[in-house]
Design a protein that fits this description.
The protein has 423 residues and is α/β, with parallel strands linked by helices. Helix content is 41%, strand content 19%. It is globular, with a radius of gyration of 23 Å.
């Protein structure tokens, strides 16, 4: 990238956009073996740069402490040797996945002899705006590259040094593999005006993926002049039906809430069937031992005096912290009604063995991910077998749920004939 010191915001974004568009065009003709080798080279570069990446992350964590970020948010930000190695392994995992480009999605013949095929192709240039987690820098780069897309990254200020260090290692790997380093670009400044310029860069950017808190996603959805794959909140629910095995249910709920409270797949509200309300104290024992605050309605509080009163706002809150809201419901219909009113369409689940109840829940709950007898924290592209994800989409475009390789392609039609003309 050329020197941008004296350029205006619009000039900076236009130059970045032109470079990304050119890299995207070159990538369209790049064999998958070369894309995979570039990813493996990037993984080697991440391992080689582990020490400067951790030093940069330590500086970000120090600043996060000064700014008073919550423990859960600092956990999202923090890297250690194991997490750096996981970043490198994720790059290699994506390299080992099947090529999503060129897949024949459908094919048919018309009565006039035309042969029509729908073929997966790259989207082009993807803009990713994200917060907190520096591993997103590598995940977004890997998925976009594997799917034949160039990517423009803009990370949050809380992880700026970590993101730059990870990006520098990836670019080093791309160069060593002979790939255009502009395939993976990072916005060179934290200037918020550059975010606006990226959102308005419809000439250069084909889709925006925001990954972060409500204020970020709301701004992207409000200001973007290109399509957006997004979700506002992960206000996720589990419904504990009386037919569920109690030990299984408690283990799943504790994992869904406390494995990593600060991720978007964490459980925020438990809906408990009145017929198993007496099992609630056993759950509170487990949660309290892990430092989790439980807020509940009057029925829940009658079962355990450690539960504090929930306010109306608790039912619509994505805590991203060690807090769980608990509400008693009288029926599966009441549970589904609560989810329809307060849920964010991210991930919702049921703990039950009654087949009819389970079938009704899975069919009627309209969330991007609906789970049965499993933790909501499986709402993750890696856990879905996608290798990694660029985010979770809760809209109704073709990308819904974890946005992985297939969701980062679009399609075109190939129409083959032998001289047909239209009458």
């Amino acid at each position: 990238m050329s020197d941008m010191k004296n350029k205006t915001v619009d000039e900076m974004m236009a130059e970045i956009g032109r470079q990304s568009r050119a890299a995207s065009a070159a990538l369209a003709g790049c064999p998958v073996a070369e894309r995979d080798e570039a990813l493996r080279a990037a993984a080697r570069a991440i391992r080689a740069a582990a020490e400067p990446i951790l030093e940069a992350n330590a500086e970000d964590c120090r600043r996060a402490g000064q700014r008073g970020l919550s423990g859960a948010m600092v956990d999202r930000l923090t890297l250690d040797a194991e997490r750096v190695e996981a970043i490198a392994q994720d790059l290699e995992t994506v390299a080992g996945l099947p090529d999503p480009v060129g897949r024949e999605l459908a094919r048919w013949q018309r009565p006039n002899g035309l042969d029509i095929a729908r073929i997966a192709v790259p989207i082009g240039v993807v803009g990713v705006i994200y917060e907190s987690r520096p591993n997103v820098t590598a995940d977004a780069a890997a998925l976009c590259l594997k799917a034949g897309n160039a990517v423009i990254l803009r990370g949050g200020s809380e992880a700026v040094e970590s993101n730059r260090a990870v990006h520098a290692a990836i670019v080093s790997g791309l160069k060593s593999a002979g790939l255009d380093p502009n395939t993976v670009q990072m916005v060179p400044s934290q200037d918020r005006e550059l975010v606006g310029a990226l959102l308005g860069a419809h000439e250069w950017v084909d889709v925006i993926v925001p990954r972060g808190g409500r204020s970020l996603v709301e701004r992207v959805q409000r200001d973007a002049r290109v399509p957006v794959f997004a979700h506002l909140d992960g206000n996720n629910h589990l419904y504990w039906h009386a037919s569920a095995d109690p030990d299984m249910a408690i283990a799943v709920i504790v994992n869904a809430k406390m494995r990593r409270p600060g991720i978007c797949g964490a459980l925020e509200t438990l809906l408990i069937d009145r017929d198993c309300l007496d099992r609630l104290p056993r759950l509170v024992d487990k949660l309290a031992a892990l430092g989790c605050e439980v807020r509940g309605d009057a029925d829940a509080r009658e079962q355990d005096d450690r539960i504090v009163a929930a306010a109306e706002s608790d039912w619509s809150t994505e805590y991203l912290d060690a807090i769980l809201a608990v509400r008693c419901v009288d029926s599966p219909e009441a549970a589904m009604g609560h989810i329809a009113r307060y849920g964010s369409g991210h991930t919702d689940g049921i703990l039950a063995s009654d087949r009819d109840v389970v079938a009704a829940f899975l069919n009627r709950v309209d969330s991007a991910i609906v789970v049965h007898n499993a933790s909501t924290q499986f709402a993750d592209g890696g856990e879905f077998g996608f290798g990694a994800e660029i985010g979770i989409a809760t809209g109704r475009l073709h990308a819904r749920g974890p946005v992985g390789l297939e969701q980062l392609t679009t399609f075109k039609y190939l129409v083959r004939g032998n001289g047909q003309v239209r009458p």
